[in-house]
Amino acid sequence: MLCGFMETSSPRMTAGTREPPVNSSPAVAANAEGEEIEVLESTDVLPVAPEDQWKSMFDKYDPENSGFISTERFRDLLAAHSSELDPHKLEVLLALANGNADGKICYQDFVNLMSNKRSNSFRRAILQGSRQLKGCSLRDEVGLGLSQRLVRHVAYETLPREVDRKWYFDSYTYCPPPLLILAITIAEVAVFMYYGFQLDRFVLQVSSPSFLKSPLPYHPQLRAQAWRYLSYSFMHTGIEHLSLNMAMLLLVGVPLEMVHGALRIGLVYVCGVLAGSLAVSVTDMTAPVVGSSGGVYALVSAHLANVVMNWSGMKCQFKLFRMAMALVCMSVEFGRAVWLRFYPPAFPPCPNPSFVAHLGGVVVGLTLGVVVLQNYEQRLQEQSLFWIFFSVYTLFVLCAVFWNVFAYSLLDVRLPPPP
Length: 419
Description:
By secondary structure, the protein is mainly alpha-helical. It is built from 14 helices and two strands, in the order αβααβααααααααααα.
């Protein structure tokens, strides 16, 4: 009867999963400790049933044709079909229904609730309520398979609110799998191995006279070749450079892609890579640049900033230790880049690659990246702060392009010879 909303027995309703508290008072926050929760606007999680089916169901619970049904009747509907619902969804829907201070639900709110749209009606219900969900936290569930435990771990690693963690745990299907970060990593390793064998050097490849002759690195003399502002990220100065970037990219990027999707994570990564090369072309005008640190630092700094801003809500194990290790890895990699930049170059007058790309990636992560990751399910086009930071980023790109076109000749910058 409730097609598009009701689910048949979920694989997560195992013997170790507590039955949902159908008759308990629902709530708004999402864990046993009383954590306050906001539910954000988002896309549909489940398919929406045809309009005529929702209308006929609504009319059944609105025999007076008043255009409203009471929240009591909506709760009765949920209770009648509780055995068909995943307990996580039931908890949230009960909370939202009871959080409605008006005591009644109009037809549009009814459609939104029944189709699991986390939209304005959800937000109003949450903001007007002041109760707590009574269900057990996701961490306490037992009897989960290996893949389910992995999804739960990722949820606690990246999401600060229990209601979002439950929603994500219930809806994630590994389809599509997190292939973007893996594909980027594989491509970087393949390029490194290719040049390693070609140059017969795997450590400090930058000291090889043929290193910068590749069509990939950014070089100030070749800045008119626009693809180099992105392709430089596939080249690395040596295996130590590649290893640190790979470790941070896989440990942070894959969980973020599983939660936020390839589009969001790809946007942050590409913006970080582009900002890195443009920052070098503006502030370190004579230096080349290689490495994926711009994109990696954008993702890692955005994730760390999100953890700090939601510190009390982040329930990942050893979060302080994890943050410390991430900062240590970033510091070691950045220190190596600074040392290499000021180390006497093997082929003067061309300096060694610049470290400024790291800083460009951090700035992108702390601005645009934080906004992209902070709101788990809210659409990017619905976030005003996203458009503000994206507009500022676009303005920076345009200014950097004009700088590259005119500043070098106006300032009479003495560039190293082309590779």
